[in-house]
Specification:
By secondary structure, the chain is of the alpha+beta class. The protein contains 27 helices and 7 strands. 73% of the residues lie in helices and 6% in strands. It has a 5-stranded mixed β-sheet.
């Protein structure tokens, strides 16, 4: 269940320091019992009363966290007793942290919170930011575990601020993960995505494979809630592959459960059961009780869809007591809602087999569903509250109480509107585009810096050569004019060669500049179009435009790094561009793309975006000023060892376009674009010794552009 668990687990390791004792009465009775039990493990009575003993006990407690948390509780209790008697303050706080971590793995988040707050009181007096940040993160995570998402968000914000101030990148990355989780569960998806993208940059800068995978999983959770299931599945599978390689079994279990949740939503129930059964096997092996309950709840939902109601009841009967024991209110809410649905949908035989009176199915389902809604409301999880409101509406409707059904359904729609409004969608799109753009820009800056360093080294080398040549020339001048002329010619040849190399570099730089400049111009115009659709309340068109626009920008950024791409890829990018321009011009033109049968789209390699400037000219200088609908035809043919592109339009033609003196930016962009394309063609022709060329032909109606380049295949 993607809504029940996230890949943001905080590492259960902490440094151990010697310090002084601070008394805390909140855990006195618990610690007394633990101290007594620890005698059987060699507790305080066995260990010398010194800082080394405390450090050893804390290490033993931390080593027991995942395998034997009950034993770890006893080691931590013994460490607390000794550290308290010796007034070792820092060690005492670390002992409480170890105690809390073992409570976490024992599925006792409330006791863990008490221990964390005790440690926090000590750390606050020491004012050591990394320890404080870690403790705040743990508190935030345990509030998340008991579904107190508002408190989780508040403590996560504090943890993130302290972690950033500490300068510890890994700690800051962990804090962003917890903060993103908190934002997700209060349905602030732009806030969650912003946190995860920051974390992803940090993880990539540290080359931390595990955290890159966990961040990918968290982004998958957000896309799951946004109902973008293909994107969610892509992120989940990416992180699952990494966790399997790293043998990170707890994270692998979470990834399997999340993948199962996607298959649940998309109706592939057999796959959902398979992935959740695999997750459940790991949760049982590692004794992760909340993970067991989550897996069982999702399996129950899949069984219900398949009509296997007895199995569905059995799974929920095991999951609900676990949620009730650990106080996981949000998970409890979902499980109660699922049980209410079973009461309403199961046949009589399944109900009686579980001791349920079929005559009271509606009344019992209503009680469970009302309880589920109240728990969702208490946790402030808007997404779950909306779902439970919708479920309650269904129960009321089937019970014939249409007034209450309508009231619950209105509550559902209001909650959904507050979660998925236009501003949030725009912000999510902006964050995704900004992340990709920043990543691309950073790569370009690195390449430019490298090129600049090489150019500086080359200038220095040439300067040395020049100075040496002058000295040698002065020494050898006595040998006469013949030696001088020879030296001069050699030097001129070198200068011409260097000039040719520099011109080539300039041409490449201009090409990169053209590609990068396409982004801001096109983004500006496209965002105006999106804004116009929104102003006209045409949400469907706005959503469609945003999806196409984001896909085009991603493809342009990806393709710009390659000297050549497949013909299929290039035509897809060009078609996306024409679709967006057609939308902006209210479908003023039609287009057709014909590829000759002997040209394989998937193996033919071509320079990217070669046709775009000519298509842009056809649209804005040929068809846009024309009355009525226009048409653009693109053909790709193979003639011997050459590929020929042609772009033909039925616009007003070049002569009339010039007379109309269209907007100054139009001709300037057109002239620059054609000049750069011609430079690219010349470079291709020179490098491959071919007759690559561009030809423009005026038609009776419109213009045709033909481009011939050498045929290249990756087959």
């Amino acid at each position: 269940m993607a809504g029940l668990q996230m890949l943001c687990k905080i590492p259960y390791r902490a440094a151990v320091f010697a310090s002084i004792f601070v008394a805390c009465t909140a855990l006195t009775s618990t610690l007394a019992a633990q101290s007594k039990d620890s005698q059987t493990l060699g507790g305080p009575a066995k260990y010398p009363k010194n800082a080394a003993s405390v450090e050893l006990l804390i290490k033993k407690a931390l080593a027991s966290v995942e395998k034997e948390p009950n034993t770890g509780l006893k080691y931590a209790g013994a460490a607390i007793v000794i550290a308290g008697e010796l007034h070792l303050n820092h060690a005492l706080a670390d002992s409480y942290m170890a105690l809390a971590k073992n409570y976490d793995y024992s599925a006792e988040p409330k006791n863990a919170l008490k221990a964390y707050f005790t440690a926090l009181n000590i750390y606050q007096k020491l004012n050591y930011k990394p320890d404080l940040a870690t403790c705040y993160m743990k508190i935030a995570y345990d509030y998340y575990a008991i579904a107190n998402y508002v408190s989780s968000l508040n403590y996560a914000r504090i943890a993130s601020g302290l972690a950033q101030q500490s300068g510890n990148k890994k700690l800051y990355s962990q804090s962003l993960s917890v903060l993103g989780t908190s934002y997700t569960y209060v349905a602030d998806y732009p806030g969650a995505i912003a946190c995860y993208l920051k974390q992803l940059k940090l993880a990539e800068s540290m080359h931390d494979t595990s955290y890159i995978a966990k961040t990918a999983g968290n982004l998958g959770v957000v896309y799951y809630y946004l109902k973008k299931y293909p994107d969610a599945l892509r992120y989940y599978n990416r992180c699952l592959d990494v966790f399997e390689q790293l043998k990170d079994r707890p994270s692998e279990s979470i990834a399997l459960n999340n993948i199962g949740a996607v298959y649940l939503e998309t109706g592939d129930y057999l796959k959902a059961i398979d992935y959740n059964q695999r997750a459940l096997t790991i949760s049982l092996q590692l004794k992760i009780v909340k993970g067991q309950a989550n897996d069982l709840t999702d399996i129950s939902l899949a069984y219900a869809h398949l009509g296997r109601y007895n199995d569905a009841f059995d799974c929920l009967d095991k999951a609900i007591p676990i949620y009730e024991k650990i106080g996981a209110k949000n998970n409890m809410s979902i499980a109660y809602g699922q049980m209410a649905s079973l009461y309403m949908d199961a046949p009589v035989a399944a109900l009686t087999g579980h001791g349920i009176n079929p005559a009271r199915r509606y009344a019992e389902a209503l009680k469970l569903q009302q309880k589920a809604l109240q728990l969702a409301h208490d946790t402030k999880n808007l997404n779950n509250e909306a779902d439970q409101s919708k479920n309650l509406s269904n129960v009321y409707e089937r019970g014939g109480n249409y007034k209450e059904a309508l009231k619950s359904y209105r509550n559902y729609t209001e909650l959904k509107d507050s979660i998925f409004n236009d501003k949030k969608r725009q912000e999510i799109t902006r964050l995704s585009i900004q992340y990709e753009y920043d990543k691309k820009e950073a790569g370009l800056k690195a390449k430019n810096a490298e090129a600049q360093a090489k150019a500086t080294a080359e200038i220095a080398r040439q300067k040395i050569i020049k100075n040496a040549s002058i000295v040698i020339g002065l020494v050898l001048i006595v040998f006469g004019c013949i030696t001088f002329v020879f030296y001069k010619r050699r030097k001129d040849a070198r200068e011409k060669l260097r000039e040719a190399e520099l011109k080539t570099q300039v041409a490449e730089t201009e090409l990169k500049a053209l590609r990068s400049q396409l982004n801001p111009h096109f983004i500006f115009n496209s965002l105006n179009s999106i804004s116009d659709y929104i102003a006209r309340h045409d949400k469907a068109m706005a959503d469609m435009y945003v999806v196409k626009f984001a896909k085009l920008m991603r493809k342009i950024l990806e393709n710009s790094e390659q000297p050549s791409v497949t013909l299929a890829n290039d035509l897809e990018t060009l078609e996306l561009y024409m679709q967006l321009e057609a939308l902006r011009l209210d479908n003023k033109f039609l287009y057709q793309i014909h590829v000759e049968d002997n040209v394989d789209r998937e193996t033919t390699m071509v320079p990217p975006m070669l046709l775009q400037p000519f298509v842009e000219n056809s649209i804005w200088h040929g068809i846009s000023p024309k009355g009525g609908c226009g048409k653009i035809t693109i053909r790709v043919t193979k003639q011997g060892d050459m590929i020929e592109y042609s772009v033909e339009d039925n616009g007003i033609g070049r002569e009339q376009s010039s007379r109309l003196k269209i907007d100054r930016k139009g001709p300037a962009r057109k002239s620059f674009g054609i000049k750069v394309i011609q430079s690219r063609i010349n470079m291709i022709s020179d490098s491959r010794r071919s007759q690559a060329r561009v030809e423009l032909t005026d038609l009776d109606e419109g213009t045709r552009v033909s481009i011939k380049i050498p045929y290249e295949s990756d087959f």
